[in-house]
Design a protein that fits this description.
The protein has about 650 residues and is α+β, with helices and mostly antiparallel strands. It has 16 helices and 22 strands. About 35% of the residues lie in helices and about 15% in strands. Helix 8 packs parallel to helix 11.
Length: about 650
C-alpha cells in the first residue's frame, strides 16, 4: 500500500452502532418495508443470468440497491434485508463469466455509440456498481468470494482499457463521464487488495483527464474553468468522477486534487444550486446562473451532490459540506419520497407537480415481474436515506465527537482517550429547535463534544454557551455522564433569490423551505405574491405548530393574471405555506395511480404540464411599500 495515504479528518459512525428515530428514521424504515423488501430479486439478477438484459442499463440496479441496502440493514437491524442482500450478492457472483465479465450484454460489449453500434451500451457503468457493491458486501461480511469476483471484474476492465489498450473516454454518450466514474471502484479494489495493478490503472484513468481530449476533467479543474463545460455537463456522472478523484487523492496524497474538487464544489454551489439545495436541469448542468424555476432536478444528482459533500467533509473536515448536505437532504431528497415511502419522484422541481412512479419504467413495463417500480433515482434515493445519517455523528482526527445533524437518534463511538461513549439525541427536530443530548461515559472519562451551528440557527446555544460570530461549532469539554440542552432558533425568514429568480423569494424556517400549494379563494398560484409590508419581514409571518408539521401563515397580495397588464395590486388576506415535503400532495393521482416515465420525464416542462397534477410554488413574487421598504432579513446561504 502507498505510504502517502491521507488520514481522514472525520470518521462517520458505523451503521451498526447507530439507531435512528424521528422523521428520517421513520422514512427509512417505511421505505425498507414497502420498497426495499418488495423489490423483485429476479428483476435485479435476470440480466446477468440470461444475457442480454431486458433494458440497456438494467445491470446498474443490483449494485446501487446493495449499496443502499447494506447500511440500511445495519441501521434498521433488519435480518430480512440482510438476507436479501446476501442472496443478491451470491446470485451476482454466480452469474459472473469465467473471464471476469460482469455485465448484461452478449454483443457489442464495452462499446460506445458508433455508426456501427447504435445501441446504448452501459457495460462499464454496470461494472462500476457491481464492483462497488461487492466491495461493500465484503467489507460488511468478510465473504471472500465477493472480493474475488470484484477483483476479476476489475481485471477484465484493466485488460480492456489499461495502458496501451482502448480509450475509456470514447465508450459512452457523455464524453467519457459515465465510463470515467469507474475510477472510484478501481481505487476501491486497490484499497481492499493492495494490488498495485489497480492503482496503476487508476493513475492511467486520471492521466486521461489531463488532456485536451474529452471530457478534459482534470485539465478544466486545474485551470479553474467552468465546471459545466466538463464533458457534456452531465451532472450525476461528472460528480461521480469527482468522488473517484477524491478517493484517488486519499491514496496518493495528492492534496492538490482535493483542493481542485473543493473549488469545483464551491463553484457548483454558487452558480448551479437551487434554493432547495438541488442541482441540474433535465440531468445536466446549464450555464452558470441558469436556474429555471421549472427545471427538472434529478434525484440521482441530489444523491451524488450529497455523496460528494460528505466525502469532502470526511477527507478535509470542510464545514460547508455539512451545510450543503443538510439543505439538499431536507428540501430536495426527502421531499422526493411519497408520503407512504413506497416510491418516489424521478424529478423534483421548485415549481410542481410531484409525480410518483407506480410502474416499471425505462423502456419496458416490466410486466414479467410483480414488483415495485424501480429507477436509478429509486436506488440512489435510498442510498441517500441510509448515507446521510451515518454522518450525524463523527469522530474527528483529534479525537473529539462532532454532532453534525440533528434529529432523534443515538450512537456508540470509541474515543482514543475516553473509551466507549454513548450519545442519545432527544428531539422532534425539524419541527422545533429544542434538542436534548445525553452523553454516557465512564466517570473519569474526559472528552470534547462539538455541536454544529447550522447557517440558519443564528444565536444557537448549548447549555447556554453560544458560538462566537462566524464560528461553525459550539465546543464544550465534559466529563462522565453529561446532559446538553441545545436551542436552535427557528424564526421564519425570507431568502432573496438571485440569477433567474431575481425579484422572487423563498420562505424558510429551520432547515425547511416552505411552499404554496393552495391559493386563497378566487386566485391561482401565479397570482399570489408575498405582501412584505414594512419593517422586519419575519414579524409578519405566523407559525402554526398545532399540526403534525408546522405551517406558516403569511400576508399575501393578488397580482394581475397577465404579464402585459398586471392591473391593480390588492390585499388578499393570508396564505398557508407548508414544508416542501407536504407540497403538491392534495388529490395527487400519483399517490395511487400509475405514472409512466415518458409522461413524467417532461412533467415540469412549461409547455407540457398537465393540470390534473396539483402544483406548488417554492419561489414567490414579493411586494412592499416603496415609501417604507422592509428590513429584509435574508439568509446568507451556505
Amino acid at each position: 500500500m502507498t505510504t502517502n495515504r491521507l488520514q481522514s479528518a472525520a470518521t462517520a459512525v458505523s451503521p451498526a452502532h447507530l439507531q435512528l428515530g424521528g422523521v428520517w428514521g421513520k422514512t427509512l424504515d417505511d421505505f425498507c418495508q414497502t420498497w426495499m423488501l418488495a423489490l423483485n430479486e429476479d428483476l435485479l439478477l435476470d440480466g446477468f443470468r440470461q444475457r442480454p438484459g431486458i433494458q440497456a442499463w438494467i445491470g446498474e440496479h443490483i449494485g446501487k440497491f446493495m449499496l443502499g441496502a447494506i447500511p440500511a440493514a445495519a441501521l434498521l437491524n433488519s435480518e430480512a434485508l440482510q438476507a436479501k442482500v446476501s442472496r443478491l450478492a451470491e446470485g451476482l457472483v454466480a452469474a459472473q463469466e469465467d473471464d471476469g465479465y460482469l455485465g448484461t450484454y452478449v454483443e457489442n460489449r464495452f462499446l460506445g455509440l458508433t455508426p456501427e453500434n447504435r445501441r446504448d451500451v452501459w457495460d462499464i457503468w454496470v461494472h462500476k456498481y457491481c464492483i462497488l457493491s461487492l466491495l461493500a458486501y465484503h467489507d460488511a461480511t468478510g465473504w471472500q468470494p465477493a472480493l474475488c469476483a470484484a477483483s476479476k471484474a476489475g481485471d477484465r476492465l484493466l485488460r480492456e482499457f489499461g495502458v496501451g489498450a482502448r480509450d475509456l473516454n470514447r465508450t459512452d454518450q457523455h464524453q467519457g463521464l459515465a465510463s470515467g466514474s469507474v475510477l472510484e471502484p478501481i481505487v476501491g479494489l486497490y484499497q481492499a487488495t493492495g494490488e498495485q495493478r489497480f492503482m496503476d490503472f487508476a493513475t492511467h484513468i486520471v492521466e486521461g483527464w489531463d488532456t485536451d481530449e474529452a471530457p478534459g476533467l482534470l485539465r478544466i479543474l486545474r485551470a479553474r474553468g467552468d465546471v459545466a463545460t466538463i464533458g457534456n455537463g452531465k451532472a450525476y456522472e461528472m460528480m461521480s468522477c469527482f468522488v473517484g478523484l477524491l478517493e484517488y487523492a486519499r491514496e496518493t496524497g495528492h492534496r492538490d486534487y482535493i483542493e481542485m474538487v473543493l473549488e469545483a464544489r464551491n463553484q457548483l454551489a454558487d452558480t448551479q444550486r437551487y434554493p432547495t439545495g438541488g442541482m441540474s436541469s433535465g440531468e445536466y448542468f446549464l450555464r452558470a446562473g441558469a436556474l429555471p424555476e421549472s427545471a427538472d432536478i434529478e434525484t440521482c444528482v441530489t444523491f451524488t451532490w450529497i455523496q460528494l459533500n460528505l466525502r469532502l467533509y470526511e477527507l478535509c473536515g470542510d464545514e460547508r459540506s455539512l451545510d450543503l448536505v443538510e439543505e439538499a437532504a431536507w428540501n430536495q431528497l426527502l421531499p422526493a419520497f411519497s408520503p407512504a415511502s413506497d416510491t418516489l419522484s424521478y424529478f423534483l422541481a421548485m415549481t410542481g407537480p410531484k409525480r410518483f412512479f407506480r410502474k416499471w419504467i425505462h423502456g419496458t413495463d416490466g410486466s414479467a415481474y410483480e414488483t415495485v417500480p424501480i429507477t436509478c433515482c429509486h436506488n440512489n434515493g435510498h442510498r441517500g436515506l441510509a448515507g446521510v445519517p451515518q454522518f450525524a455523528y463523527a469522530v474527528t482526527a483529534s479525537g473529539t465527537v462532532a454532532v453534525n445533524f440533528y434529529g432523534k437518534s443515538s450512537c456508540e463511538v470509541d474515543l482514543p482517550d475516553s473509551g466507549s461513549v454513548r450519545i442519545e439525541q432527544h428531539t422532534d427536530f425539524p419541527h422545533s429547535g429544542a434538542v436534548r443530548i445525553e452523553v454516557f461515559a465512564e466517570p473519569q472519562a474526559e472528552y470534547e463534544i462539538q455541536f454544529r451551528v447550522p447557517p440558519w440557527a443564528h444565536g444557537m446555544t448549548a447549555n447556554g454557551i453560544g458560538a462566537e460570530a462566524g464560528e461553525k461549532r459550539v465546543c464544550v469539554c465534559a466529563q462522565g455522564n453529561t446532559r446538553f440542552e441545545l436551542q436552535l432558533p427557528m424564526e421564519p425568514r425570507v431568502m432573496l433569490c438571485g440569477f433567474e429568480a431575481r425579484g422572487k423569494c423563498c420562505v424558510a424556517r429551520g432547515p425547511l423551505l416552505y411552499a404554496l400549494d393552495r391559493a386563497p379563494d378566487g386566485l391561482d398560484l401565479d397570482q399570489v405574491a408575498l405582501l412584505l409590508g414594512s419593517g422586519e419581514i419575519a414579524a409578519n409571518i405566523e407559525v402554526d405548530t398545532n399540526r403534525e408539521w408546522p405551517v406558516l401563515r403569511v400576508p399575501v397580495a393578488a397580482i394581475g393574471g397577465t404579464s402585459v397588464n398586471p392591473g391593480c395590486v390588492t390585499k388578499a388576506g393570508t396564505a398557508t405555506l407548508v414544508p416542501i415535503q407536504l407540497a403538491g400532495l392534495h388529490e395527487n393521482p400519483g399517490l395511487t395511480g400509475c405514472v409512466v416515465f415518458t409522461v413524467d420525464k417532461w412533467a415540469h416542462h412549461p409547455k407540457r404540464r398537465e393540470s390534473l397534477f396539483p402544483e406548488y410554488r417554492v419561489l414567490l413574487p414579493m411586494l412592499w411599500c416603496p415609501e417604507s421598504p422592509p428590513e429584509v432579513s435574508a439568509l446568507r446561504r451556505p
